[in-house]
Amino acid sequence: MIRLATVSPCYNEEDVLKQSVAQLTELFNQMVKEKLISSDSMMVFVNDGSRDRTWQIIQELHQENSYVRGINLARNVGHQNAIMAGMMTAKDWADAVVTIDADLQDDIACIPQMVKHLEEGSDIVYGVKVSRQADPVMKRLSAQAFYKLQASMGVESVFNHADFRLMSKRALNMLADYKEHNLYLRGLIPQIGLQSTTVDDVIGERQAGASKYTLHKMLSLALDGITSFSVKPLYMILYLGVVFLIISFCIAIYVLHALVVHTAVPGWASLILSVWMTSGFLMVGVGIVGVYIGKIYKEVKARPLYHIQEILD
Fold it and tell me: What are phi and psi of 89, to 5 degrees?
């Protein structure tokens, strides 16, 4: 039997924690009974600088429930870094780690399947969303567009997979060798290269509270995913520059012809339009290059991803 740990990042999750722990406890008890996992398995909750009673509730649950452990980060570091903090800590406690959001919208019934795939030789098991009916329409549409954009940019990732996955201790030790500061785990983990498989994940309704993943956070994650794993935007700027040179050459021929045949009409509209379009594209190009330079700047500083203030072990 394996010793399993679930890792759940928590940011202002006081409304759902007790319900989530109750559901996971029921699942753990059943898996222990079926001898899928050992009785000293655990659920690890990572408090990512919450401003409500999240950490106090984790402390209370730790006293009441032998499965519950907690990690309190010194400040809010973001969803991806909080998951990384939980995985890197839990890998020393368990044989395998399942990452799942604290609201349990992912299908926890997939976890036994993941464990069985682990026993069959897979080091990484991805939860792939087969139904997102519980998500708002805009979130479903934006998610689909995001995955397609990633694929078009050459980012290697699992389509419709978020951060619900199982990783073996061996996979986690390999992940620890990646020292990137611009974390995008959905693109990073497939690069490990160990045997992997998938399970079907049906998204459920959120039990309480509201999603902490705002549109701004989703867009930031999308930008990190593309700029951390693809240089295609830089090549797009180069190709766009070549197109502009061709257009400029054609315009130059037209202007010379108009001057020779005396058909040129003085006007400012075309000039202003050309200036604004060119300036706009130049600013976009400089902005994209700036994003990459900014990422290099962060990596060179090599600051810690997180600081753990307290561990409930």
Answer: -80, -45
Tens of pLDDT, residue by residue over 243-298, are 776 776 776 676 667 667 766 566 544 675 576 667 667 777 777 787 788 778 77
| DSSP three-state, residue 213 | coil
Cβ atoms of 14 and 102 within 8 Å: the answer is no
In the block, which residue shows the tokens 């995955």?
A: 147
Instruction: Please give the C-alpha separations between residue 267 and each of 58, 172, 250, 264, 273, in angstroms, as whole numbers.
Output: 70, 65, 18, 9, 11
List C-alpha distances in Å: 39 to 18, 31, 32, 36: 20, 9, 6, 10
Structure tokens belonging to residue 138: 């805009």
pTM of the model: 0.74
Rg (CA), the chain: 25
Three-state DSSP at 303 gives coil
Residue tagged 């611009």 (tokens): 182
DSSP per-residue codes, 91-112:
TTT-SEEEE--TT--S-TTHHH
Could you write out the DSSP letters of every residue in 4-27?
EEEEEEESS-TTTHHHHHHHHHHH
Contact 154, 230 (CB under 8 A): yes
Q: Which residues of 127-147 are buried (b: 16+ CB within 10 A; e: fewer)?
A: bbbeebeebeeebbeebeebb
What are the strands of the beta sheet with 161-168, ordered from one edge?
196-202, 124-131, 161-168, 96-99, 4-10, 42-47, 68-73, 308-312
Residues contacting residue 132 through CB under 8 Å, at least 6 positions apart = 139, 140, 143, 203
